[in-house]
């Protein structure tokens, strides 16, 4: 299934970095899903989305203890280097 | 201070020197001094405190509970320390208990009041950003089966700046069955000051005692008398580690849930020399507070400005204005907090962090989490009084490169 970033077992900030990498090539409006087990991801994915102009539209607990978050990619992405 | 209580040498009000602030050293020959920017809860010990400690070892080594002359001398010194601490904190001497750590002081406050007021109620109200010791003690206290029923801990959230919702807090203390409420004077991780006055008004009207943790504020910020219990940490204001102060207004009902001891509220008592050092350190800190405030406030202002301008993808958190003078925190996107702390340490800078990998629990800071800000790549600075402008500038010069190297190591450059 496209648009899923499986970051289970990875520690922050790696899940956010994987998600950000996928977001670079995503068109505005695209829905990306990230799966993560690190408790910090639950906090840092929404914070990243806020800083980058994306939107977390769904947060769901998975049966294996991971969290799934859907992020809608925003229109005004301005990556800085 | 009632100066009669302490030997005069101990009450010398010398400000810490800021060596290096104005005397340039030949940069090409002198090894660069380390820059310590992690003074929260463990500040460098003030010279006056060290002298007081040294002198009190000679005069106050005996057990203050004994009836002989040596014991009496110790007791007089201890009483002098309590008097001085009371005066500095706006309390009465008889309201002061000394404990061997800030954690124990917070535990004792929560446990003793929760048990003392168990018939009035079993619930405890706290902000989401109280110190872990307050949250853990509240969870412990509400779970005790006193009178055959347990309570709950109500947690009041904070905004993006880390400030508690005063109206929600007031509403929570008005609910029936609240034994105790706890709200810090200011947050030691992000510096944001809390609306203690408004919350204390509401708690007083509801007849609920308010515990105010001034562990990050005492000696640094002006305190008010908006409290029913006050907990302060000598190690944070430049005393020696091993002394915390708990002040309890006489009207607050307390009942210990620990074993009997001649020192009812602080079983076993505390080190008399450390208590003396704590008192002298707080007097010293208060005597230079206005100057220290202006000096460190301006440095934090500079840090906030330069970090936001010079480090890409950074979030400087906490209130920019209504804050402690010496605390600033920021989080860098795509940065491993542990790697950044290690890299900065290698470069000569000691900083703290609220990121998960840097804590013993592997959980990110509950303060950053409650604020909804980035928890990874976090750097927490708490400037000691003797911080130099030059040291801060060197840190700010080194930071962007350190962040870039850590990002590049994660393959996150340019994201």
Brief write-up:
By secondary structure, chain A is of the alpha+beta class. Helices cover 31% and strands 28% of the residues of chain A. Chain B has two domains: 54-285, Type I PLP-dependent aspartate aminotransferase-like (Major domain) (Aspartate Aminotransferase, domain 2), CATH 3.40.640.10; 289-409, Alpha-Beta Complex (Aspartate Aminotransferase, domain 1), CATH 3.90.1150.
Labels describing this entry:
heterodimer, A: about 80 residues, alpha+beta, 4 strands, B: about 425 residues, alpha/beta, Aspartate Aminotransferase, domain 2, Aspartate Aminotransferase, domain 1, seven-stranded mixed beta sheet, about 40% helix
Describe the structure.
The complex is a heterodimer of chains A (81) and B (415). Chain A is an alpha+beta fold. Chain A has a domain at 1-9 and 23-61 and 66-70. Chain A has helices at residues 14-24, 39-52, and strands at residues 4-7, 31-36, 55-61, 67-72. In chain A, strands 1-2-4-3 form a four-stranded mixed beta sheet, with helices on one face. The longest helix of chain A is centred in the middle third of the chain and has 14 residues, at 39-52. Chain B folds into two domains: 54-285, 3-Layer(aba) Sandwich (Aspartate Aminotransferase, domain 2); 289-409, Aspartate Aminotransferase, domain 1 (Alpha-Beta Complex), CATH 3.90.1150.10. Helix content of chain B is 39%, strand content 12%. Chain B is α/β, with parallel strands linked by helices. Chains A and B meet through helix 1 and helix 2 of A and loops of B.
Task: Give the topology, please.
The complex is a heterodimer of chains A (81) and B (415).
Chain A lengths: L3 E4 L6 H11 L6 E6 L2 H14 L2 E7 L5 E6 L9
Parallel strand pairs in A: 1-2
Antiparallel strand pairs in A: 2-4, 3-4
Chain B lengths: L34 E2 L10 H13 L9 H21 L6 E4 L2 H15 L6 E5 L4 H12 L9 E4 L9 H9 L3 E5 L13 H11 L3 E4 L15 E5 H4 L6 E5 L23 H16 L1 H22 L3 E4 L9 E6 L4 H10 L2 E2 L15 H6 L6 E5 L6 H21 L6
Helix pairs in contact in B: 1-8, 2-8, 3-4, 5-6, 9-12, 10-12
